[in-house]
Specification:
Immunoglobulin-like, mainly beta, Jelly Rolls, 9-stranded antiparallel beta sheet, TIM Barrel, elongated, 919 residues, 62 strands
Length: 919
């Protein structure tokens, strides 16, 4: 993808510009991430593999490596896990570093860390697990010789506020040196750091900290395009005052701004000159953009109102804990972009620097967060770790907001510290609370949001909503929530909880993946980034290119109305390809009959336009497929619109099955058996139910139906030959309601039903049959797929032929996807088979659903236990919705409600027409 190439090119340029003598040099003592971790000696005081020296990869969390005691931080029955890890490592420092400043830097070690170099303490114990800290060890190291490093890491803090903020949250409280460790070697006279305010108009303000002062020192400021390496404007020199703040001011003409759709980046280089000679250089990537919070209106980026489409994100890997890598950061950010997200919330702590770098490069707006789950740090500790967080993160253009803790973990006394350390004065919000005109409530129901928050004047962003526990939330209800979010005047969008299931490898439980029950199983993806069905729903709902069409009529003239939901991009920068296809029957494959490509019409963000597809005649086509690509050639979404419907495909199937045979009928008491071709079907003359099916291979155990999900009382049953076809007609007490079996000479069997006068509210409607559940089952079907659907999560699955083998996946607790069991949408036909038999169901009913066995569901506050029919194979007219961990289905919006049928007047009947091929 072009965006990947641009990102890699930018990194190469950055690395090239870093490798100069005047810059600080890094010497890694650990790996840069989990992909190149370095083995250190390790001793754990308690739990698994404790009481003996071993080795451990650094960086990593020690629990998934088989040490200590895994501990989830939330709940009344938290296990006690307060072990200490002791690390040892040897390193050398080149003699050329003597006379320079040598610092040992820890990007992250949790939760309390004490460092010794050559037996001497490097400095005060560091408290706080999510922050970069360092020690000046220039006087402790032996240059040109081996040096010993000893690091003692306590899993729990002796400070109660740190434990409340970091160790008792809704996440795994793993421990260890989980981010890189390196030496930073700098000249004695150096630039410590700087903070920028780079505006969309090209103005640049730079606050520089801790510099030598005097007439002989000056600063030279240069700017380079990150991709091309070309210098922007001319370098400018600034004399340094003897005291006071150092602030550099400059303006650049014709800079390209940074936003989530065009993440243009530059390299800002500051050179410290002494008597005209460069003694130190410091470079950072920056982006020019302006972030504003306009009261009673919204959050604006470069003058454009933002509507955030994002997820909450843990830095996590099941085999490594909180330790990650640049590769994993790229993969995760690309998955977010694939879901058409434009933002990410760092829950509930600052993350790895490479993840911010990737957000800068790929265009993800970041809500950065001070670590504090539902209780804040003591002020002095909070001020120290906030300073560390801001010094590390302040220049990332992707960061558009800061959170002062989470869900009550706020310290208002820290608000001035945020402002003092951020020259951009980005807004500081309080997740799940109202603060300074910004409302960040969590998990409000759809109706409450519609009638309260979206009708107020305060800026409203749900920084957590649609909790994605197991198979609920995330995509379920998103289309209803999103319609309100994107159209409400005061809405800023929202962040789904959460990106991935936080499961940890349990070495003490046979290397199984543990999500601590329903606490960590709340991702759109599994712990190894396995895609759940909601992934594709989110992608479809949050596609910046939107169509409202559901099917293609015979009168279609090639025109499609398209809406541009980008924030900054004109639609004419995007392209598409289209295909006309034939749909497969159970015995014949589909084909592409025509294809083409084009450019979308001009439409500014928020506007609609008509596009014209230059299609040939639709006479020989069944399906129109359209794939959209953004200006970087990344796929945005795929849409499929049927031209032919189930009845059309069924006619082909029936035509293929014509026969000159006949139907032989036998009755034996209450049983009626019909034989045709090589099939034998038996019906119960008291109930009208199918009781057994046989073909030349033997029995097909499909029987005991049709039983209606909503029961109807049988009034009368009759059977007769109509020409060469057997008919068995069941009439019900409901006026004009009936069900009819027909057995044809070809051996095909057809079932039709019409039910009138259905009243009330129903979670599901349809018919069901019995069929045994065995592990050798397979399913092949034409319909929406390949994932199952719920009534409030039908989007994201496309029409086509799909196949799946049996699995018993409990979504979010196991990760074999797509799930075999559940409801599947827009059924045309389905072939069910095992090792000995198969049969096919062909639908003539538009927008019906196939229920294929009943999945095992993990209970979560009873919000996620939708009903299923009693049988194992059902043909459904209506299916239930699913809830979230927090809200029941009816609180997720209109599509989460039970199906309400008319109480007055005539209505269309509940109807279905299905063919069965048992041959």
């Amino acid at each position: 993808m072009k965006s990947k190439f641009r990102f890699l090119t930018a990194l190469l340029f950055l690395f090239a510009t870093v490798a100069v003598a005047q810059e600080s040099q890094r010497q890694y003592l650990s790996g840069k991430g989990i992909d190149d971790a370095v083995s250190w000696d390790f001793y754990c005081t308690k739990g698994m593999n404790s009481g003996k020296w071993s080795t451990i990869p650094v960086p990593s969390s020690w629990e998934p490596q088989g040490f200590g005691t895994p501990r989830y931080g939330l709940g009344k029955n938290m296990v006690k896990a307060d072990e200490r890890g002791i690390y040892k490592h040897e390193f050398t420092v080149d003699k050329s570093a003597k006379g320079k400043r040598v610092e040992i830097v820890f990007e992250g070690s949790m939760v309390e860390t004490t460092v010794f170099v050559n037996g001497k303490k490097a400095g005060a114990k560091h408290v706080g697990g999510f922050y970069r800290f360092k020690y000046d060890i220039s006087k402790l190291v032996h240059y040109g010789q081996k040096n010993s490093l000893r690091v003692e890491v306590d899993k729990m803090s002796k400070n109660g506020s740190v434990n409340s903020a970091e160790r008792e949250g809704d996440f795994w409280t793993v421990a260890g040196i989980y981010r890189p460790v390196y030496l930073e070697i700098s000249p004695k006279e150096r630039i410590e750091g700087f903070a920028v305010d780079a505006r969309m108009d090209g103005s640049l303000s730079v606050d520089v900290r801790l510099l030598p002062r005097g007439k002989k020192y000056t600063l030279r400021q240069s700017l380079y395009d990150l991709v091309t390496g070309e210098q922007v404007g001319e370098a400018k020199e600034f004399p340094l005052p003897k005291n006071g703040d150092v602030q550099l001011q400059n303006t650049y003409n014709n800079v390209k701004t940074w936003d989530c759709e065009s993440p243009n980046l530059y390299v800002l280089s500051l050179d410290l000159l002494k008597n005209g000679k460069t003694v130190h250089t410091k470079k950072e990537r920056i982006g020019f953009r302006t972030v504003e919070t306009r009261p009673n209106d919204g959050i604006y980026l470069n003058g454009v109102k933002m509507v955030f489409k994002g997820s909450n994100y843990h830095s996590w890997h099941p085999e490594w804990g909180r330790a990650t890598s640049k590769r994993l950061s790229i993969e995760d950010a690309l998955l977010m972009k694939e879901m058409n997200m434009n933002a990410v919330r760092m829950a509930h702590y600052p993350h790895d620097q490479h993840f911010y770098d990737v957000c800068d490069s790929l265009g993800l707006m970041v809500f950065d967060e001070l670590g504090a789950y539902q209780a804040s740090y003591d002020f002095e500790i909070g001020k120290r770790v906030l300073t560390q967080m801001m010094e590390a993160n302040v220049n990332h253009p992707s960061i558009v907001a800061f959170a002062n803790g989470n869900e009550g973990g706020y310290d208002l006394d820290l608000e001035p510290v945020f402002k003092a350390l951020d020259p951009q004065k980005r807004f500081v919000y309080h997740p799940t609370h109202y603060h300074n005109g910004f409302d960040a409530q969590h998990y409000k129901s759809h109706n409450y949001g519609v009638h309260t928050f979206h009708h107020s004047r305060d800026i409203f962003v749900q920084t957590e909503f649609l909790h994605a526990l197991y198979d609920g939330g995330a995509g379920a209800g998103l289309s209803d929530f999103w319609e309100e979010m994107r159209t409400s005047q005061n809405s800023g969008g929202g962040f789904i909880w959460a990106f991935l299931d936080e499961g940890i490898r349990r070495r003490d439980l046979n290397d199984s993946i543990d999500c601590s029950g329903d606490k960590g199983a709340d991702g759109i993806l599994g712990p190894h980034r396995e895609k759940e069905a909601s992934f594709y729903t989110v992608r479809d709902v949050w596609s910046p290119i939107q169509f409202t069409r559901r099917y293609i009529p015979e009168s279609f003239d090639g025109r499609l109305k398209v809406e541009n939901q980008y924030l900054h991009t004109n639609l004419d920068q995007c392209n598409y390809i289209w295909r006309l296809e034939t749909l497969p029957t159970p015995s014949a494959k589909g084909q592409t009959v025509a294809q083409g490509k084009g450019q979308f019409p001009s439409a500014e963000p928020g506007l609609k336009a008509y596009m014209k597809l230059n299609l040939p005649s639709l006479r020989n086509a069944d399906l129109l497929v359209l794939e959209a690509f953004d200006k970087e050639d990344n796929k945005v979404n795929t849409w499929t619109w049927p031209i032919k419907f189930p009845m059309d495909i069924a006619k082909r199937f029936v035509k293929e099955a014509k026969s000159d045979g006949k139907v032989n009928v036998e009755t034996n008491g209450d049983k009626l058996t019909a034989k045709a071709d090589d099939i034998k079907v038996t019906f119960d003359l008291k109930t009208g139910l199918l009781t057994s099916v046989h073909n030349s291979k033997g029995e097909i155990p499909f029987n005991n139906g049709p039983r209606f999900v909503k029961g109807y009382e049988l009034k009368k049953l009759e059977h007769k030959m109509v020409g060469d076809t057997l008919e068995i007609l069941s009439r019900f007490t409901e006026k004009r309601s009936w069900a009819k079996w027909r057995v044809f000479p070809s051996g095909l069997v057809k079932l039709s039903y019409r039910i009138f006068n259905i009243r009330g509210r129903h979670e599901m409607l349809g018919i069901t049959f019995d069929f045994p559940e065995t592990p050798d089952l397979k399913a092949r079907w034409l319909g929406k797929g390949p994932y199952r659907v719920w009534n409030n999560r039908t989007r994201g699955q496309n029409l086509g032929e799909w196949g799946n083998t049996y699995n018993n996946t409990r979504t979010g607790a196991q990760w074999v996807y797509p799930e075999f069991k559940g409801y599947f949408g827009d059924l045309y036909w389905a072939e069910i088979s095992n090792n000995s038999q198969s049969f096919t169901i062909v639908s003539e009913t538009d927008y019906s659903f196939l229920h294929l066995f009943t999945p095992e569901m993990d209970e979560a506050r009873n919000c996620q236990l939708p009903p299923f029919p009693e049988g194992n194979i059902s043909l459904m007219n209506a299916i239930p919705a699913i809830g979230t961990k927090i809200n029941s289905p009816d609180n997720t919006g209109p599509n989460g409600q039970p199906h309400s049928l008319n109480q007055h007047g005539e209505q269309k009947p509940l109807e279905g027409d299905y063919w069965f091929d048992f041959r």
